[in-house]
Amino acid sequence: RCRFDNMAELFAVVKTLQALEKAYIKDCVSPNEYTAACSRLLVQFKAALKQVQGSEISSIDDFCRKFRLDCPLAMERIKEDRPITIKDDKGNLNRCIADIVSLFITVMDKLRLEIRAMDEVGPIVQLWWLHHHQHLP
């Protein structure tokens, strides 16, 4: 009984996510409501999938195949693992990496020149620290 309840919960989460995606496309849900609901559903999906995974079902694709679940929008959202309103910031990632490498090289050069005064090295280290941690949630 517990196994079937878990499968029913997973089925319901996927169907709800599909309905939410359709509602967002039709502009029936505001972007803020969509982001909050989609994020919550993705967390619920991960928890429900862990409870269902076993010998018969190893992935969400297996589950959808077994129960003939046709939810392409939900599957896309599950694969991306983020609401569509949250943009993928890969373009800025390369720039941030270049900035961090540049600051690291500057600090290393100062240390090699035996410039170790905190008032000269400190600001650069603080900049590096800020760049390094700005993408953390």
Automatic annotation (TrEMBL):
User: Domain VPS28 N-terminal: where?
Assistant: 1-88
- Signal peptide extent: none
Pfam families membership: VPS28
| Assigned GO CC terms | ESCRT I complex
Determine the domain of life of the protein's source: Eukaryota
Q: Where is the VPS28 C-terminal domain?
A: 92-137
Q: Which UniProt keywords apply?
A: Endosome, Protein transport, Transport
GO MF, one term, reads: protein-containing complex binding
Indicate the segments annotated as coiled coil, or none if absent: none
GO BP terms in the entry: protein transport to vacuole involved in ubiquitin-dependent protein catabolic process via the multivesicular body sorting pathway
Q: Where in the cell is it found?
A: Endosome
**What coarse category fits the chief subcellular location reported for this protein?**
other
Reply yes or no: does the keyword Translocase apply: no
* Family note: Belongs to the VPS28 family.
What protein am I looking at? Vacuolar protein sorting-associated protein 28 homolog
Q: Which organism is it from?
A: Brachypteracias leptosomus (short-legged ground-roller)
